[in-house]
Amino acid sequence: MEARDLLLEIGVEELPTSLIGTIFQELEEKSKKAFSEARIKYTHLWVWGTPRRMVVYVEGLEGKQAPLFTEIKGPAKKVGMADDGTWLPPALAFARSQGIDPAQLFVKETEKGVYIFGRKEEEGKPTIQILPHLLPELIASLEFPRTMLWGEGDFRFVRPIRWVVALFGEEEVRFPVAGVWASRQSFGHRFRSPLPVTIPSASLYRSSLQEAGVIVDPKERRRRIEECLEREASLLRGHWLRDEALIEEVTFLVEYPEAVTGRFDTRYLELPPQVLITVMKHHQKYFACVDDQGKLLPYFLVILNRSRDNAQKIIHGNERVLRARLEDALFFFKEDRKKTLAERVGLLEGIVFQEDLGTMREKTDRLVRISRYLARTFKLDEEETASLERAAFLSKADLVSEMVKEFPELQGYMGKVYALLDGEKEEVALAIEESYFPLPGKDNYPETLPGAVLALADKMDTLVSSFALGRVPSGSFDPLGLRRMAQGIVDILLHRRFYVNLSEWIRLNLELLEEQEFIQASSQIIDGVREFILNRFRFRLLAEGVNYSVINAVLATAVDDVYEAFGRIEFLDELLKKEKGFLSEVVTGFTRAKNISRNFSEMGEIRPELFREEAERELYEHLIKLRDEFTWRIRHGEYRQAVKSFAGLLPVLNTFFDKVLVMCEEEALRKNRLLLMREVVNMWEDFANLSLLVVEGA
To answer: Do 88 and 186 fall within a single domain?
Structure first.
């Protein structure tokens, strides 16, 4: 049976744009899994969609399932097979009972002995017989955070299902789902072509819908949106302000995009640029326009889900809505200017930080003191420290501004704007904004040193405060964004190459919370926060392609400094890539010593007078000469020299393994040799547990 294309279209009421990405990803994963489990091969599978339809398109779907081969256990070999290899009656009887050709019998060893098995082939069914069951099960398997119940049935879905199209080539696949029977009837664009559309075959689906005013492929819709925006902006002799998140969102708000241009009064340009952009983007889904110098123009671009013909009324309506929003913003801006940021700090006593953790004013006090500690740790000069402390004091003051109350996404940015207008130093103003960096989904690290340190202080305080009250993320539940906070700490520490003792930093934060009588400090909280941060460190390293065993080896030691640990990981990962054979020898020597002494926990000093073999005396002497130099080099980051010096010990260590029996019967001698092995292992305790390294193909 020849392969054909398959189309499944689920027509629904408008999907929530916030869920579309997740929905389409799940639909793709479950579709691939369904065809795999059904043993139906295909050439390619796509998931497309618009706000009103979810589409699975499968190219080259085989017309028949692959055969199913099963192995059936029969009698034991000793009763079913003769010495010369011929089948005895018990084996032949087993084959007849299972409908298996004796040629398909074979012998296989199991945990319970050697048995005769038969290989049975079950012929695959035609795909057209499988699809009426597979497709409705696929639809029903989709999961959503919120579902709806409609009509008389009990079928729940993200939005009510209004139609279903299912075609295998030109052939309809008939099945019911949520009271709707699958057919070849789809629907076009709600405004351009609202009548039913008959789809002749799966291969003609996209062209049929395009004629009905629907671009079903999101990539094509996005491309058209960008072309429309480019056209409108060029007419203004400007440029549209690219915003990936906004493009993605409007792509799933329309089925056939068009763009028009609106205008606003130039007096609104006295507002800070980001305020204008935020009002246009977050509240109206408009794109801003800028000139060649990047200055905002008094225009905005609107993506329509209809023709631009006779769109003047729509443009005027959008201009009226935007004018009202900008008028509000201008009023808030002027009201906020009646007080300085410093005058607003006291008002933070009226804003709760977290339940049972006091106010933002108390958080501000902690930020100032933590910043002072970090300034000493990172060796900021006097001027930088003064700017940092001032920024920490003012960093949350914009939360009580009218502008941020109305547009919370502007916190930090408005702090910077108001600080500059108040005459604060530029470094102070920038640090206020940068304390929120990096923003979700962006790599915008703080550019100023005070900004980087304040961002670290702020994130750690939120993290420690939350952990102190047991508000720890669980699974995907992370309402406070603590994983993002911890990731931000890791990213800034690595970006800035900051060395800092995590436990000491966390302890100070806890002591300040205890001083304010919010919590009682404990070592468990310190350990919990540190491990949480190190887990985000691990996550980043894996995402960057660092070898997992290198990460495990280093993080198995007592890590308390992210950047210091990064240096060890970076060195070992490079060594693993470029000098695998050399590293393998080092790892083998270490691992043999570690395995021998693994269960040895007795205390004591190595006693040279107990040595009986020249090999153990020679190993001890080399260790004494090497130990202090090796430790010093490790602690000062001279890893290559340290590892090479240890490599010089390997011939002596290998001779020891060849000539000396460590686990001898004489207790004192055995203990002395185990202490010698443990000394070899302990040299590495501050660097990595080399036994966890996986050196393949050395």
So the answer is: no
Q: Is 193 helix (H, G, I), strand (E, B) or coil?
A: coil
Give CA–CA dist 278/297, Å, rounded.
15
Structural domain harbouring 431: 342-471+480-544
Q: Is residue 322 part of a domain?
A: yes
Six token digits for residue 420:
């500059």
Residue 447's CATH number: 1.10.3210
What's phi and psi for 295, nearest 5 deg? -85, 140
The answer to the question of residue 698 being in a domain is: no
Instruction: Indicate whether 440 pLDDT > 80.
Output: no
Which residues are CB-contacts of 9 (< 8 A; sequence separation ≥ 6)? Answer: 53, 54, 55, 163, 164, 165, 166, 186, 205
pTM for this prediction: 0.81
**Backbone phi and psi for residue 602, each to the nearest 5 degrees, phi listed first:** -70, 150
Task: Please name the residue that has the structure tokens 């009548």.
Answer: 195
Cis peptide before 479 (omega within 30 of 0): no
At 123-171, the pLDDT tens digits run: 899 999 999 999 999 999 999 888 888 877 788 999 999 999 999 999 9
Domain total in the chain? 5
Three-state DSSP string of 153-170:
CCCEECCCEEEEEEEECC
Structure tokens at 216: 């079903």
Residue 19 vs residues 26, 29, 33, 74: alpha-carbon distances, Å: 11, 16, 21, 52
Token readout for 191 is 């405004």
119-120-122 Cα angle (round to 5): 150
- Same domain, yes or no: 57 and 113: no
